[in-house]
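Here is the promised in-class demo. Please do not try to memorize the tokens; focus on the logic of going from shape to residues.
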């Protein structure tokens, strides 16, 4: 009985870290070609996302944002997790005319995992 409990607990911990891992893997597969998450990383085709949760909208000083993002910046509040998830569901719907095309995430689970990963991206 005790061994079974220990086994279940280990499986639970394994699943929890697999979920955290998923966000990183998803980001690597779907976002990292355009976005870095380390503040001092070389520039990529998209803005740097270090500290994006809590950061102002369109605020990477090294990135030349589209007119659509620059127009939205004045009105948009800082990014929080809920807003990031909504953006990733359909970037074009939140910022019509932005330069990110169809590179959102279709599934809610994927969005949650990537947002959880970005929360720790500094
Ligand atoms: C093909 C390149 C590309 C891919 C892939 C891509 N993005 Fe982007 N992303 C961009 C560009 C370019 C911008 C800036 C858009 C603009 O200026 O109109 C942007 C903007 C953003 C912003 C707003 C940043 C800010 O400073 O306010 C976030 C957040 C973001 N992307 C997250 C993601 C995530 C998460 C993924 C993966 C699911 C992803 N992007 C995939 C190119 C990409």
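The designed amino acids, position by position:
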């Amino acid at each position: 009985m005790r061994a079974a409990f220990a086994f279940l607990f280990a499986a639970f911990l394994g699943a929890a870290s697999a979920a955290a891992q998923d966000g990183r893997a998803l980001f690597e597969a779907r976002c990292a070609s355009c976005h870095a998450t380390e503040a001092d990383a070389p520039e990529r085709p998209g803005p740097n996302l270090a500290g994006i949760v809590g950061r102002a909208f369109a605020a990477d000083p090294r990135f030349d944002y589209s007119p659509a993002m620059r127009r939205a910046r004045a009105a948009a509040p800082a990014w929080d997790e809920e807003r990031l998830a909504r953006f990733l569901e359909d970037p074009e719907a939140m910022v019509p005319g932005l330069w990110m095309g169809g590179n959102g995430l279709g599934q809610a689970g994927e969005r949650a995992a990537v947002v959880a990963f970005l929360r720790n991206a500094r």
